[in-house]
Amino acid sequence: MNRGQTIRAIKGMRDILPPESALWEHIEQVARSVFRAYAYQEIRTPLLEATDLFARGVGQETDIVTKEMYTFDDRDRQSLTLRPEATASVVRAYIEHRLHEQPGVKKLYYMGPMFRRERPQKGRYRQFYQIGAEAIGSESPRVDAEILEMLLVLLGRLRLTGFTLYLNSVGCTGCRPQYLVTLRQELAKVRDRLCPDCQRRSETNPLRVLDCKVAADQPIIDQLPALSGSLCAACREHFEQLQGYLKDRSIPFQLQPRMVRGLDYYTRTTFEITHGALGAQNALLGGGRYDGLSEALGGPPAPGIGFSIGEDRFALTIGAVPNDLPLYIAWMGESAYRHAAEMARELRAQNVMVELPSDPVKLKKALELASRLKARSVLIIGDKELAEGRYPLRDMARGEQRIVTKPELFQQFAGPAPAPLPSFAGAKPS
Ligand code: AMP
Fold first, then answer.
1. What's the CA gap between 339 and 379, in Å, rounded?
2. Which of 312, 314, 318 for a ligand 1 pocket mutation test, highest count of atoms within 8 Å of Cβ?
3. What is the pLDDT of residue 31?
4. CA of 156 to the centre of ligand 1 (A)
């Protein structure tokens, strides 16, 4: 690379800048508080894992594993992969740290970047972010109902509307193989009329044909036998119980018998939420049960269920959060600066967001800067104000100014209860 030539972010990977980052922070804060209310705890797993984890966990024949992973050999020749999703990692950690020995269902949540080498477009990136939760250690449909309730509470807290929850059961290792035999037989009859991808899938991963998006294939796929008709008695009962629990909670859902999702580990309950505002990439989140995943990764039986929200898409549907600045302190002169810095420190100790410019500027310029920073109020401190202990406070929207004392200022911005100032006692004296 030539010196001086600019370096840009890699295709499909982007910077999240302010003010958009404020929205991301908001989403994450709300998610953490909802997860905490349902007694989920955070897990942080490495971004790099052994490639085999995803090959065995997500499935050899899935799009993710066959075409989308960032895989490379480490210097010691071990094949490593940037995680394309987190469930396999969470279950690996569950096994590795013997979390099954702890009592009850293990409820974990995560948030962070995932990597898939897909064709970038709006709502689809090569580094994207997921917020997800996993409940491991029970196959009860009550766990499914609770996790779906939590998910809908989260969407509600973020004031999301206009979405649909699609629900399906993809059966278990007992009943799905028989369905696959029937499906393969039926697919063989119509194979030549399907799109090239589905022709391939009908051999390698026939279930995936069911959620093909190609318009011309739809009437043919509609005629294929539905998985719901082949569920064993236990899977049917599980699915019916879940629907009952969702109805108890008045959670609206739509059955979607063709929804199979792109990862092989799913068993029984699968779900997806789509949002109209997202366009082509309309899947906001997806999830389901993975009762056999732990065993596939060499662990003990540990049935589980989880979901993963695409945070990038979430941010697209929610729109902006307010990012204005409550208070800007304009100062004129060195003594005014020192006074302003103390005032700012006191206000910030009470969690008031305050901007204090570090370079001296004339009042007119300070007001322009404050306006560009979307300041709601500007406090003006000069020598005269310093001497009198009374300050002009400008309401930027109204363009009006009134004179306030320090207690009045604190009453307005910080509320009645003063907090102690930080003492910096933790810092060693030099
Ligand atoms: P999955 O792990 O494939 O079930 O995806 C769960 C959610 O992650 C999807 O519903 C999307 O919202 C999001 N997602 C998946 N892949 C991407 C991507 N390449 N870019 C942005 N979001 C994605």
1. 12
2. 312
3. 98
4. 20
Lowest mean pLDDT, pick from 33-47, 76-90, 320-334 = 320-334
Are 86 and 110 in contact by the 8 Å Cβ rule? The answer is yes
In 10 A of CB 100, how many CB atoms? 15
- Binding site membership of 275 for ligand 1 (Cβ less than 6 Å): no
How many residues make up the chain in this entry?
A: 430
Integer Cα distance of 202 and 194 in angstroms: 9
pTM as predicted: 0.91
- Ligand 1 within 6 A of CB of 87: no
Give tens-digit pLDDT for 204-238: 888 889 878 888 999 999 899 988 889 999 999 99
Distance 12 CA to ligand 1 centre (A): 13
CA distance 61 to 69: 13
Q: Which residues contact 82 (CB under 8 A, 6 or more apart)?
A: 47, 48, 69, 70, 71, 115
- CB of residue 85 inside a 6 A radius of ligand 1: yes
| 308 C-beta closer than 6 A to ligand 1 | yes
Specify the residue with its C-alpha closest to ligand 1, atom 18. 124
Give the separation between CA 192 and CA 220, rounded to whole angstroms. Answer: 11
SS3 114: strand
The per-residue pLDDT for 321 is 85
